[in-house]
Fold FAD-binding oxidoreductase.
Amino acid sequence: MLADSSNENTVLWSLTAPPAPTVEIISENLSFDVVIVGAGLTGLRAAVSLAEAGTSVAVIDAQRIGYGSSGRSGGQCNPIWRATPDDLATEFGNTQAERLIQATLTSADDLFDDIRRLNIDCGAEQNGWFQAAHTRRQAASLKKLASAWRKVGAEIEDVGSTGTQAGVGSPAYEFSLLHAKGGFVQPLALTRGYAGAALANGARLFEQAPATAMERKNGKWHVVTPGGILTAEQVILATNAYTDTLWPGLRQTILPMVSISLATEPLNAEQQASVLPGRVTVSDSRLAIYFARYDSDNRLVFGCVGSTDSVKTFGGPGRLRKGLRTVFPQIADIGIECSWAGRIGVTPTMKPHLHEPAKGVLAGLGFSGRGIAMTSVMGRALARKVLGASNSDMPFPVTAIKPMALHGVSKAFVPLMAPTLSTLDQASVVLDRGLGRLSKEKDRT
């Protein structure tokens, strides 16, 4: 049992990650080649590449390393989009889509190769990911998705009822896709590992250093913090769902939706044999998605969509418990050690944005539930762009900032999304069962 972990909003990862590296507090004006705002997975992965290339780089964070999404996510590496390759071609054009498709196909292996190369202790396991359908309609949709991605080289297996229930250890699903490249990490440990690698290559990291203003003077950017001004040729904005008003309009390009999670007490050997055997991960096709994976100490981490930064809002603990009972009824009464919430940066198209709003400024954000794999892709891409790569070499299209229409109204309704989506999910299950009964009666007649 974790010490002092009974309270809600206690993040498991902060209790089990290796110690954070020693960082600095800004107390004077400093100059660098690149300043990165946001010490999460994206910003720190970019810092690793830049520092390895010999670039003078500083990473600053308003809070601490991994405070935001990177220290609060489920930590699952789910290396495929909800869109098909043809959908990507329609959205981006054939050439850009091909770059994104290739980056997607290699994203998981690239991440786990990174972890090994940098010798990061983050409980990384690449045992596969079950993408499960919660209704027959969603099963049909997933079959089409898998077929489309297999045509471009993805390793995806259609798994029927028996294989799904055995592989996931759940009676809740009768069809799934098994993605061989999927896996999981301890996300805060990965973030701290990137931080250590960046420091080892000469980067400087500063915590408790909110960027309060940016101004271009004499050909350089001046990033203002309470402790001093940082001057740089290039600035990378990597604040994702915790983006504020530092750059006009950037916050309005995403919705800060919320994921909530719980961690059970460690499962014994018998329980592990029936819940996610093989230490795979699972996420399903609900609008208010359920997901689950193990941690290194055999706790089950189970999550769903939440409402605010507090797990309690609009019955969050109840949704988590109900979801756990639905998916894994065999451990319905297991003890819960902690639960927490974190924001997810969601874009209208459910794919990340790479912006270049001004000369010497880049922003990468909006990973929409694919952050473990895609922050690694984005971080490396941002670094390559700073080092001189052209837009035509980027896995994501490089665009100007375009705020969402009615962003303020949409953001105000975010807390209501979790209960609303959960209600719609319940209705879809009831409808699916009713259609199933009608189909059986029709077959008998």
Q: What stands out?
A: The chain is about 35% helix and 25% strand.
